Amino acid sequence: MSTTNDLDTPTTDRERKGFATLAAQFALLGYVLIKGDPAIDGQALYYTMRLGTMQPLETLEAAALYMAALVGAGDGGG
Q1: What is the span of the domain harbouring residue 43?
Q2: What is the mean pLDDT, run by run of 10 residues, along the chain of 78 residues?
Q3: What is the reported pTM?
């Protein structure tokens, strides 16, 4: 599989699709999901940002859990 083309993998296993889906879901809550640069020492792979606050997240699964916690806490933005 090429690093620039993930079309040979099942749709549910595509990292870019998972990221785009979560980014859209975070946007509905008023958050921005950003992909970090793991080549920079100490930088998390993903971040959420809202109103000047930033939450580092190591995986897409951690981002999904963070979003679930936001929804459960009633932080739906708006």
Answers
A1: 18-72
A2: 58 76 94 88 86 92 93 69
A3: 0.72
